[in-house]
Specification:
Rossmann fold, alpha/beta, four-stranded antiparallel sheet, six-stranded mixed sheet, globular, 10 strands, 11 helices
């Protein structure tokens, strides 16, 4: 979630506290939308790739966190990234989203957008959504209000004060509520949800932005078995409509997501150690030695 959206959420919480009798009041005050494209048109995926990294490297105080990493993701693909702690998975996401600048290499979103030319907020506006391990929702707002806040609308002060969802926006809100399994809980305060439900809500907030690419960092950490299974169902339902990159340690969850011929990427010491079907990487001697055998 971007700083802009977090700031806007804090303002919304204050506004609701001051006007508790009003239900679903408009969001206030944020100067710019979270995911409005900064360039017109769609992401160019005519070459069959929505994300492309080549020979990316970055060091911190002499430690090579990413070492000539090359990776590509197809439009609509669901890719799981696994690997031991310190393999560079989070740093990779930081580079894609503009939080960290690499020392060398190429990072493209589609065929034409050089992500290294843009700042973190601009990259989010282009249609790359990132979810961290710990859910960040506005607990004093309802589920519905959290999703409403994330709508792609004009977030200027006066527009926000007058905002009410139109028919299409209302349909979109209802669709996302169903997708994330929270339609029966639309009027509940987000703070009363279970950990898994909060994770789904934050994913729903990202979906309200119409992202082309979702980066999901250990999304089922701390979930119950039932919540983990439903999260797998959710991600599989998004596959094809969005490209998903899922960083995860829960191998049972990875297995649920990668049945068939889906590709899994194993990172180690900042580069790709192995790539292929889950069964193939699980039988790879190097992977067993550095990760699965631990």
């Amino acid at each position: 979630m971007t700083p802009d959206l977090m700031e806007e959420g804090a303002r919304r919480v204050t506004a609701y506290a001051q006007a508790a009798a009003r239900h679903r009041t408009a969001s206030g005050g944020r100067a710019a939308g979270f995911a409005r494209p900064i360039v017109p048109g769609e992401v160019d995926t005519t070459h069959g790739r929505i994300l492309y990294l080549e020979d990316v490297s970055v060091s911190f105080d002499g430690f090579r966190a990413i070492n000539k990493l090359s990776l590509d993701i197809a439009p609509g693909e669901l890719r799981c990234i696994i690997g031991p702690n310190g393999a560079g998975k989070t740093t990779m996401m930081d580079i894609i989203t503009g939080k960290t600048r690499p020392d060398a290499g190429t990072v493209f979103f589609g065929s034409t957008i050089d992500l290294l030319r843009y700042k973190e907020a601009e990259i989010a506006q282009m249609g790359i959504g990132r979810k961290f391990q710990k859910p960040t929702v506005f607990e004093q707002l309802t589920v519905y209000e959290n999703l409403e806040l994330a709508l792609k609308t004009d977030k200027g002060v006066f527009a926000s004060m007058r905002f009410r969802p139109d028919s299409a926006e209302g349909d979109r809100l209802a669709e996302v509520l169903r997708t994330i399994h929270l339609a029966p809980h639309a009027d509940r305060l987000a703070g009363t949800l279970s950990h898994g439900q909060k994770q789904w809500l934050e994913i729903g907030m990202l979906l309200m932005q119409d992202p082309k690419l979702l980066l999901l960092d250990e999304p089922v950490a701390g979930m119950t078995d039932e919540e983990t299974e439903r999260t797998a169902e959710l991600f599989l339902s998004l596959e094809g409509q969005h490209s998903l990159v899922v960083v995860e340690h829960d191998m049972k969850f990875v297995e649920q997501l990668t049945q068939g011929h889906k590709k899994v990427t194993v990172l180690h010491e900042g580069s790709v150690l192995a790539e292929g079907k889950l069964a193939d990487v699980q039988s790879n001697d190097k992977v067993v030695e550095v990760y699965l055998g631990r």
